[in-house]
Amino acid sequence: MDEQTPLRRYRALRQAGELRPDSVQELAVEKLQTLHHRLAQYDPGRGQGWQQFLLLRPRREPAPEGLYIYGDVGRGKSMLMDLFFDVAPIEQKRRVHFHEFMAEVHERIDRFRKTPAARRDGDDPIPPIAGDIAQATWLLCFDEFEVRDIADAMILGRLFTKLFEAGVVVVATSNRAPDELYQGGLNRQLFLPFIGLLGERLDILCLEGRMDYRLARLKGQPVYHAPLNGRAAAALDAAFLRLTDQPRGEADRIQLKGRILEVPEQAKGTARFDFAELCERPLGSLDYLALAARFHTLILAGIPRLGAERRNEARRFATLIDVLYDNGVKLVASAEAPVAEIYPAGDGALEFQRTVSRLIEMQSAEYIDTPHS
Question: Is the pLDDT of residue 357 over 90?
Answer without folding.
Answer: yes
